[in-house]
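comment on this one:
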Amino acid sequence: MTSRSSSHAPDGARQRFPVVIVGAGPAGLTVGNILRAAGVDCLVLEAETREFIEQRPRAGFVEEWAVRGLRQRGLAGELLERAPTQTECEFRVDGAGHRFRYTELTGHRHFVCPQPLLVTELVREYADVRGGAIAFGVRDVRLHDIGTDRPSVSYRCADTGERRVVACDFVAGCDGARGVTRTALPAERTSRHDYGIGWLALLAEAPPSSDCVVFGIHPGGFAAHMARSPQVTRYYLECPSGDDPDNWPHERVWTELRRRLAATGAEPLTEGRLIEKRVLEMHNYVVEPMVSGRLFLAGDAAHLTAPIAAKGMNLALHDAFLLGDALAARLTTGDEQGLRGYGAASLRRVWQYQEFSLWLSDVFHGASSGDPFRAGTTLARLRRLLASPPAAAAFADLYIGKHADY
């Protein structure tokens, strides 16, 4: 999809909804469900098919506060009741494993809920249960008059190619890092950080080889192991920025995983067919402010956090709770307080998670940086984290997102 912000909408078949939501990911669908529960009509526009978004591999860890927020809004209850939970992680360094039991320190845990399963449940609830309007496969989405009190969104229908125009009161931009709604805001509003490395993201058709998340801190590069289901495991391998996944055939992948995740007494990795292999560029950005007229950005459209700390989907849900509740209040009671404070409330947590991601990246990648000073400070941080109760407690709070709105 492409987006242009113009002063007026073109001619075309016209509709009206109080809210148009661009993007059917966790943020957009959660906002839509909140609005439908409040009796507010909205339209979700999605570039992909329903089948695609229900299968697209993405993040898999949901923090406990986010689970509570979903349950409070009547969303994903059965799915989350069945979701496995994790209460600890393991750092492997210099051939030794060190367990970090963050639930003992915080009382909170992670839920293992791959994004495709959550999206499937959210779109079912929105479209099939709550009767929300949604258009899949749309093309050439454009925003119009977002600086006025009469914004609109136009798009081309997947079936007919007809351009349709939707008048609305508000637009929720929830279409991700490569979406169209960010282009309606000036580029100078975006703060960026590039880590200068890549991660080879892998899905293996193999049972997990550990009962928790494992972080391998190794001079040859970072590695990670994360359960996704009893039959599928997510792995990451640090690689050069811009690397080609074809440079990583099956045998090389498993050789590097075994090397970087090695630890005395650890169970051997269960090898399996690689069903996904792509390189992720490690970079972050934040759009400030997240609001322009009647356009409100949420999730990766507003801020991208590299998967270093598994915060992206959690931030998307945090935005969706704030924005959905605020829009519902404005459209049902006229209360504008939530919308006025939305950007500032979101950004407090966004910047906390960005800072934590930056800190954790130094821990993960210092040993492989080629810089003896960085390698030495990495080991110092790990020793402090594993030996100092105050340092462990502070890390655990941010890792699980217990206190993130300072």
